[in-house]
UniProtKB/TrEMBL annotation, chain A:
<dbReference type="InterPro" id="IPR011006">
    <property type="entry name" value="CheY-like_superfamily"/>
</dbReference>
<dbReference type="Pfam" id="PF00486">
    <property type="entry name" value="Trans_reg_C"/>
</dbReference>
<keyword id="KW-0902">Two-component regulatory system</keyword>
<feature type="DNA-binding region" description="OmpR/PhoB-type">
    <location>
        <begin position="124"/>
        <end position="224"/>
    </location>
</feature>
<dbReference type="InterPro" id="IPR001789">
    <property type="entry name" value="Sig_transdc_resp-reg_receiver"/>
</dbReference>
<dbReference type="InterPro" id="IPR039420">
    <property type="entry name" value="WalR-like"/>
</dbReference>
<keyword id="KW-0597">Phosphoprotein</keyword>
<protein>
    <submittedName>
        <fullName>Response regulator transcription factor</fullName>
    </submittedName>
</protein>
<keyword id="KW-0805">Transcription regulation</keyword>
Automatic annotation (TrEMBL), chain B:
<dbReference type="Pfam" id="PF02518">
    <property type="entry name" value="HATPase_c"/>
</dbReference>
<keyword id="KW-0597">Phosphoprotein</keyword>
<dbReference type="InterPro" id="IPR005467">
    <property type="entry name" value="His_kinase_dom"/>
</dbReference>
<dbReference type="InterPro" id="IPR003661">
    <property type="entry name" value="HisK_dim/P_dom"/>
</dbReference>
<feature type="transmembrane region" description="Helical">
    <location>
        <begin position="12"/>
        <end position="35"/>
    </location>
</feature>
<feature type="domain" description="Histidine kinase">
    <location>
        <begin position="227"/>
        <end position="414"/>
    </location>
</feature>
<dbReference type="Pfam" id="PF00512">
    <property type="entry name" value="HisKA"/>
</dbReference>
<dbReference type="GO" id="GO:0016301">
    <property type="term" value="F:kinase activity"/>
</dbReference>
<dbReference type="InterPro" id="IPR050428">
    <property type="entry name" value="TCS_sensor_his_kinase"/>
</dbReference>
């Protein structure tokens, strides 16, 4: 899977590249509108991560060009400006998702899988791993055909783990994912702990192996072994 | 007290005091004039009687008969023969005394003169009198006249105030009204004063200068906060992504612990930034507040969201929520408001504490147990208030609540009632 990063902050682009180094995603990075436009005209990408504020223009110009070229590349806007107008404008032109900086890599990974899967598997959107089947349309989970009843938050949690397999997720990253827009939620750690405990318990009752491992009490990791 | 009434009060007082003093003063002056006048009359009467008795009647015997006749007539004086009395002459003696007057059938004051007469070598005593009744009437009359003048002066002064002073002060009141309703955060500006009075022009110029300065200071501060928060996003993003990368490498337990602390600090700073930006946006009026919202539904959804938090702290929650309470506002902001208030009520609560959530047509009441002392109802809504810093919140939650409430024209108040910290939100309909 090919991903293009359009981001003028080189450190952020490099951070994303390093994080996805071992994944099947191939990350390319450009830092201005001109280079981005060249790349888009030459190649096809599965997903484009688009910053809005660029030195020689805005990400919206690139987005408009993608639409003009009738490309099917998925676009995720990554912007430092969490303004509703930008969000609406981006989605109106045809962006698939909007992520406000700073974001967690785990969150980005999940969003990339989500938008690319939406395009390629319409209607039959199931993530599978280690016997677990997550239906992203019906929001249902099965382990070897046995249904697992999960709350919406537990489902979101499991989905995050599946899109960042074999990676350590910090408690703060998980809390951020679970709570989303809620400002000032205080006992995020406790919330994460409670949800993971419940999720593990529910998975155990259907005979699913304990995939979710605690890493020194500071983070969690989903490993299939 | 109003400026125009301020000068009226001492003026009234002064007029009143002068009036009080003037009444006895008037009385004594009039009395003095009367006495001087009466004494002169009596003295001239004496001279005339003595002169007439000595010269009109050439024979002393006739004079004695006249004296007797005069005494019988009783026309304001009596003449007594001093040879039959042992009277020591002391010269002319003037005095005031009262006696019964048979003609008016009342006791009246009189001015008397007692003086020795020399008629054909015989010594006589003259006792002459003048009626002094009129001067008693002076007191009520002067009082009445003075009161009428006092009233007239007051009415006159009030009229002058009303019609002249009001006109003179009009530009002053105009600028005062404008100043008190001026909302600098809305970009409103004062209009210059329209007057030919130097002091007012000077006042207006100075006010314009200062309001414009605070307007630009306000704008600069707002822009600075917004820009600073924005500019911090990128370095934060870099720290966060590098920390995440580091987390994927082989680390010892203590390194993990450090990393976890870095993550916490970053996440706290992110929240802070987010809140500062939110405040800036509310102040910039970037939210439209005319959606019709079901407050009951929003509250119930939020309570549902926080269920796990109630459970972890074992908080007993009592709810009394009327259905279908609609308000006009901005959904994102109202959700933030409810979220912040609930977060606040949870994070400052005790383990095994209580929380009351009451919503009806009139108000929303959120109460929680916690610290056993009341908080400062003014300070808690201020940004970065110390009382709020004990937990990992940004110290902006309640400041944001306050701004949201102001933007929506609602009202919010904190009170410590029966050991519960209570936040009351009202005026939302």
């Amino acid at each position: 899977m090919k991903v293009l990063i359009v981001e003028d902050e080189i450190e952020i682009a490099r951070g994303i590249q390093s994080y996805f180094k071992d994944s099947p995603m191939v990350m390319e990075a450009v830092s201005n509108v001109r280079d981005a436009s060249d790349k888009i005209n030459l190649y096809n990408y599965d997903c484009i991560l688009l910053d809005i504020g660029l030195p020689d223009g805005t990400g919206f110009e690139i987005l408009e060009e993608i639409k003009r070229l009738k490309k099917t590349d998925s676009v995720i806007i990554i912007s430092a400006k969490n303004s509703l107008e930008d969000k609406l404008k981006g989605l109106e032109i045809g962006a698939d998702d909007f992520l406000t900086k700073p974001f967690y890599m785990a969150e980005l990974a999940m969003r990339i899988t989500a938008v690319t899967r939406r395009k390629s598997f319409d209607g039959n959107n199931v993530v599978e791993s280690g016997g677990l089947h997550l239906n992203l349309i019906k929001n249902s989970v099965h382990y070897n055909d046995i249904e697992v009843e999960l709350t919406p938050r537990e489902f979101r949690l499991l989905r995050l783990f599946l899109s960042s397999k074999e990676r350590v997720l910090s408690k703060t990253a998980i809390a951020d994912h679970l709570l989303g827009e809620q400002v000032d939620f205080v006992d995020g750690d406790k919330l994460v702990y409670a949800h993971i405990k419940n999720l593990k318990k529910k998975l155990q009752t259907v005979g699913c192996p304990d995939y979710i491992k605690t890493v020194y009490g500071t983070g969690y990791k989903f490993c299939l072994d | 007290m109003k400026l125009l009434n301020k000068s009226l009060k001492p003026f009234t007082l002064l007029t009143f005091v002068l009036l009080i003093i003037s009444i006895p003063l008037f009385y004594f002056v009039v009395l003095y004039i009367y006495i001087v006048d009466a004494d002169q009359t009596l003295a001239s009467k004496k001279v005339r009687i003595e002169d007439q008795l000595n010269h009109l009647y050439k024979i002393p015997k006739t004079a004695i008969l006249r004296i007797r006749l005069l005494n019988e007539l009783d026309i304001g004086y009596q003449i007594y023969d001093l040879d039959t009395m042992s009277y020591q002459s002391e010269g002319d003696r003037f005095y005031t005394a009262e006696r019964f007057d048979q003609y008016s059938n009342s006791i009246k004051p009189y001015r008397y003169l007692e003086s020795e007469l020399d008629i054909f070598g015989n010594r006589y005593l003259l006792k002459a009198e003048v009626d002094m009744e009129e001067y008693f009437d002076v007191i009520p009359y002067t009082t009445i006249v003075a009161s009428i003048f006092f009233l007239l002066i007051l009415i006159g002064y009030y009229m002058i105030n009303r019609f002249v002073a009001r006109k003179v002060w009009k530009p002053f009141y105009k600028i005062l009204n404008e100043l008190s309703s001026l909302k600098i955060q809305n970009g409103e500006k004062l209009s210059p004063i329209d007057s030919d009075i130097d002091e007012f022009i000077k006042l207006s110029d100075n006010l314009l200068y200062f309001t414009n300065r605070s307007y630009s200071a306000y704008n600069q501060q707002k822009e600075f906060t917004e820009n600073a928060a924005h500019e911090l996003q990128t370095p934060l993003a870099i720290i966060q992504s590098k920390a995440e990368l580091l987390l994927q490498t082989e680390l010892t337990e203590s390194q993990h612990e450090y990393l976890s602390q870095i993550n916490l600090a970053v996440s706290r700073m992110k929240r802070l930034n987010k809140n500062l930006l939110m405040l800036a946006k509310i102040e910039n009026k970037q939210f439209i507040v005319n959606e019709k919202l079901n407050l009951s539904a929003i509250l119930l959804e939020t309570i549902d969201l926080y269920q796990s938090s109630f459970d972890t702290k074992s908080i007993r929650v009592y709810t009394e929520i009327d259905e279908e309470i609609y308000i006009k506002g901005n959904r994102a902001l109202i959700e933030t408001l409810i979220n912040s208030l609930l977060t606040n009520a949870i994070s400052h609560n005790l383990n095994h504490g209580r929380m009351n959530l009451i919503l009806n047509r009139k108000n929303l009441l959120i109460q929680n147990s916690g610290k056993l002392t009341a908080l400062d109802g003014e300070k808690i809504f201020k940004r970065f208030n110390k009382d709020n810093k004990s937990f990992s919140g940004s110290g902006l939650g309640l400041a944001i609540c306050k701004e949201i409430v102001i933007l929506h024209d609602f009202k919010i108040k904190y009170k410590y009632i029966n050991g519960l910290h209570s936040f009351k939100l009202w005026d939302f309909e």
